[in-house]
Amino acid sequence: MSTEAIPLTAREEEVYRERTPASLRFFEKAREHLPGGDSRSTVFYPPYPVVFDRGEGCLLFDLDGNQLLDFTGNHSALIHGYGHPEILKAIQVQLRKGTSFPGATEPQRHYAELLCRRIPSLEQVRFTNSGTEATLNAVRAARAFTGRARIAKVEGGYHGTTDDVMVSIHPSGTEAGARSEPRAIPNTRGIPREVVSNVTIIPYNDIEGARAVLESTGAGLAAVLVEPVLGSAGMIPAETAYLEMLREVTRRLGIVLIFDEVVSFRVAYGGAQEYFNVVPDLTCLGKLIGGGFPLGVFGGRSDIMAMFDPSRGRPAVLHPGSHNAHPLGMVAGATTLELLTREVLAQLNSRGGALRQEMSRAFAGAGIPAQITGVGSLFAIHLTEQPVRSYRDTLTAQADRRHQIFLGLVNEGILIDPRGVGSLTTALGEEEVRRFGAALRTVLARHRGA
Questions:
Q1: 284 & 417 share domain
Q2: Of 227, 278, 387, 432, which is least surrounded by CB within 10 A?
Q3: How many domains does the chain have?
Q4: 296 and 328 in one domain?
Q5: pTM (predicted TM-score)
Q6: Which structural domain, as residue segments, surrounds residue 240?
Q7: Is the domain of 135 the same as that of 185?
Q8: How far apart are CA 388 and CA 253, in angstroms?
Q9: Is residue 280 reached through a cis peptide bond, with omega within 30 degrees of 0 on the bond before it?
Q10: What is the pLDDT of residues 295-338, one digit of tens each?
Q11: What is the spatial distance between Cα 325 and Cα 128, in angstroms, rounded to a whole number?
C-alpha cells in the first residue's frame, strides 16, 4: 500500500504495527486474564504498547527484537539504567543471605542512615513498598500529629493511588472550576464523595491564589502536599517563591508541609528541597530509591515520626507490612544512591539541560509550537504556544499530535513516556542524546505542516 495515500496520523501507526507484531499477539493473549493486558494503566497507549523482553544499560529490547534507546528509566525509577553491575552484585550478595526476614536487618539501618545524612530534613525515616504507601503514611501522620482531618493538595499533583490523594490530578477544564480556586474532582470512579469533600485543592505556582485558599481553610488543615516538580502533569517545576510561601503559611498555621519527592528527588543531591532551599516537615520518596525494586520512604521531623515508635508501648500510628524495608530493595537502593555522587548527578543534569535545549531547537526548526519543561534530568513536551507553569496551562496542548510524535520516536528507536515526559539515566551519554535529537528532527520533519 502506498504511503502517499495514508494520512500522516495513520502512517506512524502503520509502521509501528509492522515493527511490533509480537507485542500485538502478547496483548491479544494477555487480555484473556488481565484487564487491558497489563497491571499499569498509565503505560497503555493505542494501538497497543510495546512489550519488553530485557534491558541492558540504556537499551530496551522488545519481543520482536527491536532495540530502543530508553529515555524513561521506567518512569524515572531507574537512574542508572538496566543491569548496573554494582547494583546487581549487591543484590546477589543479599540473595545468598535470604530474601526477607521476620524482623529488622542491617541493610535497613544502613540505608536509613544514608538517607538521613543525604537529606538534612530527614531526622528519621520509615520504609514502605511504594511511593503510594509513603504518602498514605505521611498524610496519616500529619492527621495524627495535628488532630485535624482535612488535607490540601496542588491541582495536577499525583501522590499515588489512595483515595485521599486521587483528587484533581487531571480534571477537565470544564469541571475544574476557577483557576485561582480549583474544585476538588475525583480522578477515578470509586472514591467516596465524603473523601473528596475533605480535600482542599490549591493552584500551582499561583502565590496569591494558593495563599488565599490556605488561609481561608488553614485552621482545619492537617497537611499540604506538593510535588516540587509536577511529574504526572508534565515535569513542571515549582517556582521558589511559591514553595517559600507554602512554607511560611503552613508554619504559621500549624500545618504539616509534605514534599512528595518521588519524582523530584533526582534534581539535586539532597533532593528538590536542596535545589529550592525550602525545608518541609515530611518528605516522601520512591521510584529511584529502590534501585529497581518496589520501595518507598517517608520521614522528616523526629517529633512527628515518633508517633510510629513501638518501643515504648503501642504507637500512636501503626505501620505494619510484611515486606516493609525488604532487604533486596535496601541494598539495591543504597547502592544506587552511593553511585549517585554530586559529580555524577551534575553530569546527568547537564545532559538533561542539553537535551531540553536540543528538543526546543528541533520544534522551533520544524515550526511546531512546543514548550519543553523540566529541570535536572527530567523533561516533558507540551504542544502549546503558551508558557507552561501549572496543570491548567497543559489543557490547550495537542495531545493527539503528541501521541503521533511519540509513536514516530518509537519507530525511530527512541522511547519516551507516551504522555510526552521522560528522564535521563547515567547510562545515557552524549552520543545517545545526539541520537535522540536526530530522531526527533526526523519525526518532526514528517509532521511539519500536518
A1: no
A2: 387
A3: 2
A4: yes
A5: 0.96
A6: 85-339
A7: yes
A8: 30
A9: no
A10: 999 999 999 999 999 999 999 999 999 999 999 999 999 999 99
A11: 6
